[in-house]
C-alpha cells in the first residue's frame, strides 16, 4: 500500500506537467498567437528534432565546460573548507570574504573574466568554478562544524591520528551536507556554463540561444531551454542517486 502511494505521488507531478503542456498546445491553437512570440509545444519538439545535430554539438560543449568546472570547484571547495576547519584563523579570514563575494552577481563578473582570460574554454570553466564553489564550500564547512567534539576527543584519547579521525568521524558526518551542496552546485554548473557562453563563445547552448534569439527563431530558443532544463534535472538526479548509493543510512 505504501509503495502504491509512493508511486502515485511520483506520477502526480508528471501528470500535472503533461496537463499544462496539453493546455498550452490548445491555447496556442485557439488564440492564434504567432509562433515567434509563443510557439506551441509541438513546434518546439519539431525544432528539437530538426536541429538535433547542431544542438548535440552545442550540448557537448556545454557539458564538457560544466563537468570540468564542477570537478575543479569540488576539489577547491573541499580543500578550503578543510583548511578553515583545521585552522580557525583561516576561517576567520576567508569565510567573510566568501560570503561577501556572493553579493556580486556572476553575470557582472563574467565580462571581466572574459577580458582577463580570453574567449576560449578557460574563462567558461572559471565561471563555472566560481558559480559552484560557494554552495559546496558552505555545505562542507557547516557539516564539519556539526561533528561531535566529544567523539573526536574520545578518538584522540584512544590514540587516533588526524587522518583516522577524519576518515572515521568527520567524513561520515559531513556526507549529507556535502551531497546537499553537490546537488545545488550541479544545477548551477549548467547555468554557469550557459551564462559564460552567452557573454562570448564559439559553441555551446548559450551561443545557440543568442543566435536563436537574434533571428526570432523562438521555437529553437525554447528547444535550447528544454535541453538546459533536462541537463540540470539529469545532473541533479545523478548526484541524488550517488548520494543514496554512498549513504544508504541517510534514506
Automatic annotation (TrEMBL):
PROSITE patterns: ABC_TM1
Any one biological process term the GO annotation gives: transmembrane transport
Listed GO CC annotations: plasma membrane
Transmembrane segments: 12-33, 63-82, 94-119, 125-144, 178-200, 220-241
Database matches in InterPro entries: MetI-like, MetI-like_sf
Gene3D superfamilies linked: MetI-like
ABC transmembrane type-1 domain span: 59-239
Keyword Transmembrane applies: yes
Keyword Aminoacyl-tRNA synthetase: no
Main location (coarse class): membrane
Pfam families: BPD_transp_1
CDD domains from the UniProt entry: TM_PBP2
UniProt membrane topology term: Multi-pass membrane protein
Cellular localization per UniProt: Cell membrane
Entry keywords, A to Z: Cell membrane, Membrane, Transmembrane, Transmembrane helix, Transport
Similarity-based family: Belongs to the binding-protein-dependent transport system permease family.
Name of protein: ABC-type nitrate/sulfonate/bicarbonate transport system, permease component
Organism: Peptoclostridium acidaminophilum DSM 3953
